[in-house]
Recover the amino acids of this structure.
């Protein structure tokens, strides 16, 4: 243990503006330690990909960044997570405000059982009074940004549950964009989608990157290498290696990272 | 069947025969449950049917109308009291309360409350609502007592309905920055509503038929003022009327008693039917 400390040259600090920084982050589910000593810096307005075999706790790490783990009874976090330099686990943190700033798209699309329009308007309606026309505008803008508008503009009042899987995935993105987050956390995007839908969502991410800090968790190596600027390799609850994507995929320093990205295990 | 069996006599019954025997036994058990229900309803409606008439139902003097109105009003007021309390308790237990000894204790209390005999509720209602709080024997005291009786049913049914709302919908709401209350109000409650309403109506069906809780708290016979005009007025009620006719009244034909029973059971069955229809209609409109 202790190998993954900050002084190790396996964890590279990105250049430029920093959005999120964790130090000594650990996560316990009861007695089980899911994450140990994760210290990493995430660059603002860049795409950071987290890779690693199933069960390596990369999703758990993602859920630390917007405190979704709070909802799991018995979950306990140690260490620090700084968002713009402020500890989100400080007792004065308003978790609702934090989650508005750090949006999350889940692994499986989970539209609310209501209309497409109401799904997208859900967030804005939570966070303040909007006039009807403002709300219409936000809904259209968000659906356009999620590349869904053209397909649903005539059926906004229909149930979101009637959409296809790929459309539901993009609806989930539109729903998050509607609350104008600063950070977008995406858990295994595209895992359940066909290639066309995957391609659309990848294009979308690159477009969104200009305004949002994006962290994606993925099993898809090609996707990670194509779209991300930085990549981190998780193994058994530890961040083994982190740095620019080219380095992680083409010239990893750790043998285990090398094995994984070359597909020797996973 | 006997012919084919005889070949295997020395051995145990074959799987097919076992299957057939088990099926027959289970069918008989199920039929046995049906039998008393059919018998009770049959006797009641046949005998009651002879005595039932529009006059019996609608007359305010010696008919059942005051009792019908009394029971319906009583049940409605019971629902008004039990619904907010029961639903709020269920929401607390399912959505807010941290898992721990306190919640386990509350759950235990609810289970025990459901097991308290209804006559004890009646005596408790007499002591608390009628005497201590000074309501007197009236609609309000009866409804409060019945609400206590219905509360465990309402809470249990509401909790079950809340539990059926998928966890991922709550997660999606929280992830968008909703507070717990916003999530409960906008996502959880609307989706649990069919189950909650069904449970509420069913427990009102149960409350409508109870005699003991209203015996000391609300019900009278042959009131000079047959219809209540305030919640502090005494009422007549079908179960109590039936109890009175069966035990103390003189000169009443058996058929008239059965007719009263038919009206009471008819009312309860109607309430249950409404619950079933409500569930079917609201369920049909929602899915996830």
């Amino acid at each position: 243990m202790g190998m993954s400390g900050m002084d190790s040259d396996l964890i590279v600090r990105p250049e430029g503006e920093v959005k999120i920084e964790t130090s000594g982050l650990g996560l316990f589910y009861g007695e089980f330690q899911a994450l140990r000593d994760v210290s990493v810096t995430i660059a603002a307005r860049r795409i950071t990909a987290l890779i690693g075999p199933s069960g390596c706790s990369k999703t758990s790490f993602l859920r630390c960044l917007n405190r979704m783990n709070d909802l799991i009874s018995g979950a306990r976090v140690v260490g620090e997570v700084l968002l713009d330099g402020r500890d989100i686990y400080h007792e004065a943190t308003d978790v609702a405000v934090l989650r508005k700033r750090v949006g999350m798209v889940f692994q499986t699309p989970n539209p609310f059982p209501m209309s497409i329009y109401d799904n997208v308007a859900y967030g804005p309606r939570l966070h303040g009074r909007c006039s009807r026309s403002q709300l219409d505008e936000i809904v259209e803008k968000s659906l356009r940004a999620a590349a869904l508008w053209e397909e649903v503009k005539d059926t906004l009042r229909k149930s979101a549950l009637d959409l296809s899987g790929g459309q539901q995935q993009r609806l989930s993105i539109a729903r998050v964009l509607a609350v104008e987050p600063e950070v977008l956390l995406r858990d295994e995007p595209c895992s359940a989608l066909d290639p066309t839908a995957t391609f659309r969502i990848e294009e979308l991410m690159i477009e969104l990157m200009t305004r949002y800090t994006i962290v994606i968790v993925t099993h898809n190596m090609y996707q990670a290498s194509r779209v991300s600027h930085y990549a981190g390799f998780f193994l058994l609850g530890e961040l083994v290696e982190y740095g620019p994507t080219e380095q992680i995929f083409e010239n990893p320093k750790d043998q285990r990272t090398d094995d994984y990205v070359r597909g020797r295990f996973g | 069947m006997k012919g084919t069996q005889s070949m295997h006599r020395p051995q145990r019954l074959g799987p097919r025969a076992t299957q057939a025997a088990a099926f027959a036994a289970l069918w008989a058990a199920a039929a046995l449950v049906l039998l008393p229900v059919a018998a009770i309803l049959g006797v009641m409606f046949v005998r009651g049917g002879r005595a039932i008439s529009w006059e019996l139902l609608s007359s305010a003097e010696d008919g059942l109308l005051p009792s019908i109105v009394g029971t319906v009003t009583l049940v409605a007021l019971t629902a008004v009291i039990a619904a907010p309390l029961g639903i709020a308790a269920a929401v607390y237990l399912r959505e807010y309360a941290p898992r721990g000894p306190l919640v386990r204790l509350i759950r235990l209390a609810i289970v025990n409350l459901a097991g308290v005999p209804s006559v004890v509720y009646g005596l408790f209602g007499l002591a608390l609502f009628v005497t201590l709080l000074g309501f007197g024997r009236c609609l309000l005291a009866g409804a409060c007592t019945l609400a206590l009786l219905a509360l465990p049913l309402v809470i249990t049914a509401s909790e079950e309905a809340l539990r059926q709302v998928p966890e991922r919908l709550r997660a999606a709401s929280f992830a968008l920055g909703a507070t717990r209350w916003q999530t409960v109000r906008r996502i959880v409650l609307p989706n649990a509503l069919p189950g909650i309403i069904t449970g509420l109506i069913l427990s009102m069906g149960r409350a409508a038929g109870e005699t003991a809780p209203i015996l000391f708290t609300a019900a009278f016979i042959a009131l000079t003022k047959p219809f209540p005009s305030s919640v502090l007025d005494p009422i007549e009620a079908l179960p109590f009327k039936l109890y009175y006719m069966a035990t103390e009244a003189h000169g009443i034909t058996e058929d008239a008693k059965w007719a009263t029973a038919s009206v009471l059971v008819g009312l309860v069955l109607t309430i249950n039917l409404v619950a079933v229809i409500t569930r079917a209609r609201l369920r049909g409109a929602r899915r996830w």
